[in-house]
Amino acid sequence: MKETILLGAVAYDPKVVTIWEGIRDYFNESGTPFDFALFSNYERQVEELLAGHVDIAWNTPLAHVRVRQRTGGASLSLGMRDSDRDFHAKVIVRKDAGIASLHDLHGKRLAVGSRDSTQARILPLHFLKQEGVDLDRVQILPFDTDLGKHGDTGTSELDVLRALSDGTADAGTIGDLVWVQQQAAGHVDSARIEVLYTTPGFDHCMFDALPTLSASKREGFVRSLFAMTWDNPTHRRLLELEGLHEWMAPREEGYDSLIAALATAG
Amino acid sequence: MAANPELERASAAGAIAVDGGDLPLGGGLLALIRPALTLLEPDGVLAILSRSKSVDADLASWCRAERHELLGAEAAGDGTTRYLVRRGRFGARRTQDAADAGLPKRADAATGFAPFGSVVEPGGPVYPFDLVERDRVLPPEVTELYEQAVAAQWNAARDIPWSKVPRLEPALELAVSQVMSFLAENELSALYVPSRFISRIHPSYVAVAMFLATQMQDESRHIDVFLRRARATGSPPAISSATTSQSLYSLLQIDDFTESSFLLSVLGEGTFLDLLAFVERFAPDEATAELARRARIDEARHVHFGLAHVRHALSHDETLYPRLEAAVRSRAATLAGIGGVPAPVQDGLTIYAAGGSDPTRVARGHDAFRELLVTMHEGRIRRLRSAGFTDEQAAKISDLHTPNFM
To answer: I need a surface site. Which of A16, A213, B68, B249 has the fewest CB within 10 A?
Structure first.
């Protein structure tokens, strides 16, 4: 009798239930006993993973880096989405704000996303500092919506976009996925808002586990996960809901900038 | 750039170009890029000419999100940049195969309501269509029959000379009302029975569903005119006999499309052709003759479809003969114990053909009714033979047909 893998995920949207119930059914049908538990925030999820109450956690980059640090780098990284690789953040500006370079942000109003959003706040501000922008001279307009969800809901990024549209901000920080998705959906007035700066790439979510995860659970999880394909209609629906085309092997170098940003912030 | 072997290999899969002018990515450029990419094979390369400076940053992000690959950008003079995008393998592709393919022998229920010939993205649900075999569903004549049906629609209010309905002697009036009400009751079943199959027919064979929709429209109109005539002169109500109800109930129980088409259209509506000819021939007035004539023309089309359906299915499946015969037997078994034609119908048709209650005329009406039964039997045999049954099978099946006519 195989042991059941218990996965933790954060319920940032009702679709999370649909996604994980679908993946649970698929895993069980493919011979990997599987169940999931939903948490209301990533802080709780990280603690429960570290306490051994769940086997695997589907983590944001911020949660992933915390798990790495709390386990002294011993945690297991099991996989990520293709869309988690080479994420970028953007600094977008109103065309009428007179911002032609990053230094023009000084004295301007910069809308930023939630303080626990890697793509909408932590990393864009980190890279702006690296580029020589003095954040003390920028009027930061924070949108701390959905704290604990680490930016998953995208709400704070939409808040940033709205602030630019209605003129309450001159510039804003936003993840590239929300930015192109909003453009592709026709929700951005390209005549008024454009990209000023794109950050270097960084990686996003990761399946984390403790090093004590049994080999059979680990192998079962990885085998079933990577057997999901876009060409299978059942899988495809789940992949689309979760925002990926295919699962990818884990890699750690994509989190270096976030680790550095968190170290600087103290 | 052509010196880059990677690019040369990529271009071999097909390359096309779009000129995006000054359009930003989210300001209309995607409406040029996305359709162009759907024309390419995976790995095919799209060249995008753009003079919008924001495209540089946005195109890379969009390519990442869609799993296309931005191969590079080069100045093309005059402030224009040429971007090369290699198409990924995930999006829908407009292959000509989909448009060129003939109707499949077996349709895929996961293509849902997608019009046949379109490129169907995978990932949709499997629809509950179970009539998915072309040769069991789609007779070759169906398109022509549909066009005929559309051209032959008529108007129940305008096309019948209702002002020419006279007052008749009470016995004849009652007979007219009884016959018209009986016709309406049967046509109600002919309205409901096809509706059970439309939602089961795979949309690749939508021509059949469309034909059945015209059939249902025809039946609606017939119900309308028969009931108008039945109620035109305020005669006492007609009787709906238990025999009719049993017979129509058994028709509604049949789940197999071909068996249903056979029993309803070939046998039932076929028999009704002779009944409607009778109603027209002995009609007491011009309006009644005209509505019977028009209804019969419609019914002939339904019979034609039923014959085409059954004939086509039989030609692809020999085992269907005994199954159709079994369906007739099994229906006859559920109607066992039922005598002949329901008495109110028999009496109504006799007085109707007699044109009144005078005994000498009634004798003629009775003969006409007996003659009708013979005509109906002969007509059924003729249609069964045309569907492909032997003389012996045809005679047996006709004998087993419901005494309710439908």
So the answer is: B249
CB distance A182 to A120 below 8 Å: no
**Looking up tokens 């009714």, which residue turns up?**
B369
Contact in structure between B48 and B83 (CB atoms under 8 Å): yes
Domains of chain A by start residue, with CATH: 5-84+204-255 (3.40.190.10), 89-198 (3.40.190.10)
**B191: burial class by Cβ within 10 Å (0-12, 13-18, 19+)?**
middle
Q: Considering only CA atoms, which of B196, B214, B405 is closest in space to residue B305?
A: B214
Comma-separated ranges of CATH 3.30.110.40 domains in chain B: 5-86
| Residues A5 and A56: beta-carbon distance below 8 Å | yes
**Do A180 and B123 count as a contact with CB atoms less than 8 A apart?**
no
**Distance (Å, whole) CA A13 – CA A213:** 28
- Identify the CATH assignment for B5-86 out of 1.20.1050.10, 1.10.1660.10, 3.30.110.40, 1.10.10.10: 3.30.110.40
CB contact under 8 Å between A183 and B67, yes or no, is no
Contacting residues of A for B30, CB less than 8 Å apart: 183-184
Contacts of A233 in chain B (CB under 8 A): 110, 122-124, 126
pTM comes to: 0.81
Tens of pLDDT along chain B (406 residues)? 444 555 555 454 456 899 999 999 989 999 999 999 999 999 999 999 999 988 988 999 999 999 999 999 999 999 999 999 999 998 888 887 776 778 889 999 989 999 988 888 877 888 999 999 999 999 999 999 999 999 999 999 999 999 989 999 999 999 999 999 999 999 999 999 999 999 999 999 999 999 999 999 999 999 999 999 999 988 889 999 999 999 999 999 999 999 999 999 999 999 999 999 999 999 999 999 999 999 999 999 999 999 999 999 999 998 999 999 999 999 988 887 777 899 999 999 999 999 999 999 999 999 999 999 999 999 999 999 998 899 999 999 999 999 899 9
User: CB of A206 within 8 A of CB of A250?
Assistant: yes
**Residue B2, CB half-sphere, CA atoms under 13 Å: how many?**
2
A100 interface with B at CB cutoff 8 Å: no
List the single residue in B54, B65, B126 with the smallest CB-CB distance to A194: B54
Please judge whether A90 and B64 are an interchain contact, meaning their C-beta atoms are less than 8 angstroms apart.
Answer: no
Residue A237 to residue B110, Cβ atoms within 8 A: no
A247 and A226 Cβ atoms separated by less than 8 Å: yes
**The CATH number of B134-400 is which of 2.60.40.1730, 1.10.620.20, 3.40.50.300, 3.30.930.10?**
1.10.620.20
Q: Where in chain B is the domain with CATH 1.10.620.20?
A: 134-400
Taking CB atoms and an 8 Å limit, are B61 and A176 in contact across chains?
yes
Per CB-CB distance under 8 Å, the chain B contacts of A236 are: 122-123
Q: ipTM of the assembly?
A: 0.88
